[in-house]
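Notes to self after the Tuesday call (sharing in case useful).
The group wants a holo model before anyone commits to mutagenesis around the pocket. I volunteered. Ligand is NAP. Logging inputs and output together so the record is complete.
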Amino acid sequence: MMKAPLFNRLALIGVGLIGSSIARAARVQNAAGSIVATARSAATRRRVAELGIADQVVETNAAAVEGADLVILCIPVGACGAVAKEIAPHLKPGAVVSDVGSVKGSIVRDMSPHLPKGVNFVPAHPVAGTEYSGPDAGFAELFVNRWCILTPPKETDPKAVEKVAAFWKLLGANVETMDADHHDLVLAITSHLPHLIAYTIVGTADELSEVTKSEVLQFSAGGFRDFTRIAASDPTMWRDVFLANKDAVLEMLGRFNEDISALTKAIRKGDGKALFEHFTRTRAIRKGIVQMGQDSATPDFGRPHPDLAPLPKPYAVDEGRS
Ligand code: NAP
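Result:
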């Protein structure tokens, strides 16, 4: 027999990659009795209705949260404060409010002051995503074996935290709880800085396009194309991440600049030992990520290598040769 849903009514505000993946996964896992969704634009609301991933699509944020037990904001970080203010008078007493923002300190500061007493706030960050956006980009398996980090403020009822943790576990995620500022420091190095580096390197290559002609794209398999995937991530989302996590990103950027100076010096001095030792250490880190089940061990990220015509024989075989 199927278990009773964790929440009677789930409201999703914003139905892009993350919101639509939550809707799909929650439906598959029977995590909510009913799912009501809304989005800023009529076009997205229409598309969500066509996809049939929510039980109800409503026009306003206020209508979405009416009677909801769990409300999740799946919108850019910079928009969460204003939406919290807008929905506050319409929240059901005892409701749990959450979000999925990639930065947590600013979310807690922007949303908490607006939420009424009796409503529990459990900020969350599912560390899972792709470079695609919008309601069509989502899929139910997005969170499977990925981390979801919860950063509840001190005053939040632990029972609400447990319930949100159970929700994410049902969607397939591993759940960890930590302080919001600590989250921002960890994510600055594991996610925000890599995105900044990708945005930089792809931009630099583009500026050099006059010199390199189309060769950057032609020879992109040399490593560049992996940066282009990350640099294709949503501009609104990432603008907000860097504005909201300014201090932690600047701290990590300072350390990164010191390390890149050290490698620059090793190259200039021809210090092969320093380079070799550094690269050996980083190779072991990749191995560790694979061993922890956070990525596949398949070469080249498991990209399919299509069937190619057989290589021509290097020379005609002389059948009569002994
Ligand atoms: P998305 O696919 O671009 O969807 C964003 C949604 O937010 C859309 O429904 C959009 O509505 C709505 N929206 C945009 N600006 C808004 C505003 N100013 N006010 C109200 N609604 C607004 O984005 P996403 O990738 O799902 O990201 C959503 C959140 O998840 C972000 O906070 C991001 O930090 C976090 N996150 C993203 C990833 C990732 O890899 N993408 C991973 C983890 C967490 P319209 O379609 O109507 O414009």
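Two things stood out.
The longest strand covers residues 7-13.
The chain has two domains: 7-178, 182-298.
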